[in-house]
């Protein structure tokens, strides 16, 4: 989970043709849904807004209402309420919508807040909470992980993140070795190159935290 910039993506024009109480989500045509997905892809890439797995045939996809339609129907056609989520039953949007009542204000909204202020992704695939959080921030971080089921101890996401970062452990060791004998202008370009190339990959935040030694366990 990482911060998304919605400000650079205009609201899809099709949303303006629908109204709460007059239309339902099922009224959207296939072309309208594709227009919305295209806008979400600009904002997110082909990655789930919550877990950062790839949006593909294996993991499925759906247009996700951050605040659930059944509890917040007035947000059905609100661009600011829409994300692109994977279709996994055991995490993210589908899990959220079936986990029971919760306070939506507890959820960290990634186009408004930076999730990295709350979470640290560790090389073993787990997610820990940042040190120094206030009591309110700690509560929201814990609730976000629970409601989206992003860090279940035996859940598949831990294994997926661990696999994603495993190839970078050797890179980290190589950079650390270079840093022990060379000035930053020698090894820093390699680090910046690896960070740049990984930004569009699934689980890029976990990769970033490993590469920058925030969450690495060698």
How far apart are the first and last residues' alpha carbons, in Å? Answer: 23 Å
**N-to-C series of helices and strands:** HEEHEEHHHH
Number of helices: 6
Largest sheet: 2 strands, antiparallel
Number of strands: 4
Spans of at least 5 consecutive residues whose pLDDT stays below 50 are none
Walk across the major sheet and give the strand order. Answer: 1-2
The proportion of residues in beta strands is 5-15%
Task: Give average pLDDT, whole number.
Answer: 92
Helix content: 25-40%
The outline comes out as globular
Structural class: mainly alpha
Radius of gyration: 19 Å
Structural notes for this entry:
The structure is a single chain. This protein is mostly helical and 218 residues long. It has a domain at 165-211. The strands form 2 sheets. The protein has a two-stranded antiparallel ribbon. A two-stranded antiparallel ribbon has the order 3-4. It is built from 6 helices and 4 strands. The chain is globular, with a radius of gyration of 19 Å.
């Amino acid at each position: 989970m990482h911060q998304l910039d919605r400000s650079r993506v205009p609201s899809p024009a099709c949303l303006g043709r629908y109204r709460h109480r007059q239309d339902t989500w099922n009224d959207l045509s296939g072309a309208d849904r594709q227009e919305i997905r295209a806008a979400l892809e600009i904002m997110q890439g082909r990655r789930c807004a919550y877990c950062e797995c790839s949006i593909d045939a294996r993991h499925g996809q759906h247009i996700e209402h951050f605040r659930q339609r059944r509890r917040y129907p007035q947000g059905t056609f609100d661009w600011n309420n829409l994300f692109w989520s994977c279709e996994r039953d055991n995490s993210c949007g589908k899990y959220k919508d079936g986990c029971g009542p919760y306070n939506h204000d507890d959820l960290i909204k990634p186009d408004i807040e930076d999730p990295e202020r709350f979470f640290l992704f560790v090389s073993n695939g787990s997610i820990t909470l940042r040190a120094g959080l206030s009591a309110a921030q700690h509560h929201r971080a814990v609730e976000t992980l629970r409601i989206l089921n992003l860090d279940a101890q035996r859940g598949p996401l831990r294994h997926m993140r661990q696999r994603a970062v495993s190839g970078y452990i050797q890179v980290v060791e190589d950079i650390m070795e270079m840093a022990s004998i060379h000035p930053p202008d020698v090894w820093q370009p390699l680090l910046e190159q690896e960070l740049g190339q990984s930004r569009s990959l699934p689980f890029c935040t976990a990769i970033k935290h490993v590469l920058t030694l925030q969450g690495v366990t060698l």
